Amino acid sequence: MSSQDRPADSKPAVQSTQEARMEGTDDRFNSKLREAFGSSPFILTKFDQFMNWVRGSSMFMLQFGIACCSIEMMATYAIKHDLDRFGAGIPRASPRQADVIIVPGTIVSKFAPRMKRVYDQMPEPKFVVSMGSCTISGGPFQQGYNVVKGAEEVIPCDIHVPGCPPRPEALIYGVAKLQERVANGESSPVTVKPYELEQFGDLEQDELVDHLAEDIDRETLVMRYNWADSP
Amino acid sequence: MSLEDPRDTEALEEELVGVTNEGVDYDALEDLLGEHVIGRESHLNAEAFVIRPDEVQEVLFTLRDQAGFDHLSNLSAQEYEDRYESVYHLKKYNDPTQEVTVVVPTTKRDPRSQSAEPVYRTADWHEREAYDLIGIEYDDHPDLRRILLPETWQGHPMGLDYDQDQPQVVSFENHANPLEEDHQDAESDTMFINIGPHHPATHGVLHLKTVLDGEQVADVDPDIGYLHRCEEQMAQSSKYRKEIMPYPDRWDYSSAGILNEWSYARAAEDLADLEVPEYAQVIRTMAAELSRMAGHMLAVGTFALDVYGDFTAIFQYAFRDREKILNLLEDLTGQRLMFNYLRLGGVAWDLPEPREEYFEKLRDFLDELPQTVEEYHSLLSSNEIFQIRCVDTGVLEPDVAKSYGATGPIARGSGIDYDLRRDDPYGYYPELDWDVITEDGSDNYARVLVRLQEVEQSARIIEQCVDLLAEWPEEDREIQSNVPRTLRPEEDAEIYRAVEAAKGELGIYMRSDGTDSPARFKIRSPCFSNLQTLPELSEGEYIPDMVASLGSLDIILGEVDR
Ligand code: SF4
Fold first, then answer.
1. Closest approach of chain B CAs to the CA of A40, in angstroms?
2. In chain B, which residues have their Cβ closer than 8 Å to the Cβ of A146?
3. Strand A127-131 relative to strand A159-161: parallel, antiparallel, unpaired?
4. Residues of A with CB below 8 A from B236's CB?
5. DSSP letter string over B20-60?
6. I need a surface site. Which of B21, B123, B208, B261 has the fewest CB within 10 A?
């Protein structure tokens, strides 16, 4: 219903809290939504769809910095670019409170198991934005002896934002795209390669593993890097 | 400081050996070392004495105490076909142009030499790195284990026969308590706590193995290497002329890229004997100072975030001002963060057209700056809470700072008057009028003050550069000298050159083998040495003070780990 259907003497849409409490029913919450749906206060939608919309409209990011890209990521959160305008900008310090992890930088052998652990600690559903060339392929350090060739070697990624570093605008675009997809309920095409990231006991028992078996606790998270077959 | 104090006190009274008006008298030093010297080399920056691997400490003690070389700025280790070599680069804090190099060769079969750690505390980490990447072992070293690579790593990747394709296994282990049993044990009341590598206060991916006794830090062991992305290997496999330049931007990525580029440019230009036109030097100086300002803004903003979680005010203010600088740099270089603007022999291109407009923007920015800095002072340095958190916490005595090789705002905050821009002049700095800032507080507060004042000094420098550039006659605007398409510096030339980057002395050691890419490329990172002081700053202090100290050290992990 549009405004011309309203009785001429209807109250102004905005009221102060105090005024609203003074007389009659409190209709502060009635404004736009009530107008749009007429007299019925109900909206019919699928719960799934509703949840997707909610998820996409309010994403908590994990405060997670790795390398140079994280400087641009901070600039994206901060003044001028202000990612929060899009309902996706509050960095959470704990993975337990975060929906989205932006992976901003080069992942090296020592860090990959830690990143995997942080990712594992995030509650479902969780989403990954990989930021920068390093998280796509290793970027400028692709040839390095210690550099993991992209985030997808370790965790699945929903959106890749290319650039070295991507500009804040590009990161915002990436996040907005992710929000759009989440809101539409599109699940990400998970292209993760099953990296050999398992309990130590499951690793192929070769010479190197045997050699290290004495030092490493069997319960611990262990990664094996097959540099020769990396992309 | 020395264990052999009699010599120490004598040296103070005596004249230091080898000091002349024309720089270092290497013959006098050779006489001083006498029998220990088994050979002599000429590096482009200084003479080098070759010594036996089991006499390292004696030689370094002599050089430190009797010749006054109190700054071990770098250790570059490398493997040759027939030997290993540890190259110690020594300098003096009060005159860094006085340098001497000590070369310690060891055999291939048993790469073992004496540790320099008792002489210079900073050698601790440097030697661990040499052990980790090259495979040289140091006798007498207090704690020789891997530093950048995981404990389980197989082989030494910067050695000659390393097979990069071999698989590696890395585990996520629970770290053992470095001091004693964990608190679960009834006997002990210390508690072991891991801070990082993913933690908001660690400025990236630093891992601090901390032992607490109540609220106090009993022991802290920084565990680095979570961002070791093989910068040296990358440089060694790239060509001098253009391929190496993009990498320095990624060492200290707090927008201090131009300063890093300059360190490579300076070393490579001296190695290949290239001229830089004066006009390009002025542009470099201006761009470098803009970078420094942006780097310091980030440092101040994140420091405020660390000490009182101030995400909404100072952090945002700092980013607002940083954005302005980034816009100026973007106009100049075309990039916000990874500038890649310097070239060997000059800069990539001239100032953006229309020049007048660009100068106008720069001047507007500089005009507003005093007010901005004033704002920081009223928000930050005159804030009582801030003062309570920072004054007298994280104290770093000048002597300690020197033995750890601390440089930059860390050293200057401890009253050490050391700034390579003035003491080892390069670029256009000697022609300009500016001051080196020092503060005597030695605490977290002093370091912040140094940074804020350096921002003002940078502004002074930029202002003078803008005036110079605006007046510069059009026909003289030479941005690059003639540089051969392929650079092949002379075989076996070795050089160590440093510049004053945002965090301190950023040096490059290069050895050429006559080809068009370096045979050894070693980065002396200021953050690496500065971070080493963290245990000194924080042991015995409360844990929040440790976080503040870490913030005031202003490390960038990309540069620590390289
Ligand atoms: S993509 Fe580029 S800017 Fe980003 S982390 Fe990698 S090297 Fe740094």
1. 41
2. 149, 157, 228-230
3. parallel
4. none
5. ETTEE-HHHHHHHHGGGEEEEEE-SSSEEEEE-TT-HHHHH
6. B21
Q: Which of residues 31-70 of A touch B (CB under 8 A)?
A: 63-68, 70
Q: What are the b/e assignments for A7-29, b being 16+ CB within 10 Å?
A: eeeeeeeeeeeeebeeeeeeeee
Give the pLDDT confidence score for residue B49 in this predicted structure. Answer: 87
Q: Residue whose CA is closest, atom 3 of ligand 1?
A: A165
CA dihedral B349, B353, B356, B358 (to 10 degrees): -70
**Selection from B44, B39, B37 nearest residue B511 by Cα:** B44
DSSP letter string, B181-201: S-TTSSS--EEEEEE-SS-GG
Q: Whose CA is nearest to atom 8 of ligand 1?
A: A68
Question: Please, which residues have CB within 8 angstroms of residue A85's CB and are 6 or more apart in sequence?
Answer: none
Q: Give residue B408 CA to ligand 1 midpoint distance, Å.
A: 25
CA A132 to ligand 1 center in whole angstroms: 6
Using the predicted structure, report yes or no on whether residue A190 has a pLDDT greater than 50: no
- B373: its two tokens: 């800095």
CA proximity to B407, closest of B555, B270, B558, B262? B555
pLDDT digits (tens, 9 = 90+) for A54-93: 888 888 888 888 888 888 888 888 888 888 888 787 788 8
Q: Which domains are present in chain A? A: 61-183 (3.40.50.12280)
Task: Supply A143's token pair.
Answer: 């040839």
DSSP E strand boundaries for B290-436: 342-343, 346-347
Query: Which residues in chain B have their CB less than 8 angstroms from residue A109's CB?
Result: 149-150, 153, 168, 170
Contacts of A221 in chain B (CB under 8 A): 171-172
- Taking alpha carbons only, the member of B276, B315, B296 closest to residue B428 is B276
Q: Please tell me the distance from the alpha carbon of residue B137 to that of residue B294, in angstroms, as a whole number.
A: 40
Nearest to B323 among A80, A146, A228 (CB): A80
| Rounded (to 5) percent helix, strand, coil in chain B | 40, 20, 40
Cβ contact A117:B172 at 8 Å: yes
Spans of chain B below 50 pLDDT: 1-13, 180
Q: Which residues contact B192 (CB under 8 A, 6 or more apart)?
A: B175, B177, B178, B179, B182, B183, B209, B210, B211, B212
Identity of the residue in B149, B203, B558 whose CB atom sits nearest the CB atom of A68: B558
Confidence of residue A220 (pLDDT cuts 50, 70, 90): low
Mutate to test the interface with B, among A145, A148, A222 (most CBs of B within 10 A): A145
Domains of chain B: 2-139 (3.30.460.80), 231-561 (1.10.645.10)
Element (H, E) at B211: strand B207-213
Among residues B59, B70, B152, the alpha carbon closest in space to that of B103 is found at B59
ipTM greater than 0.95, yes or no? no
Res A179: pLDDT: 85
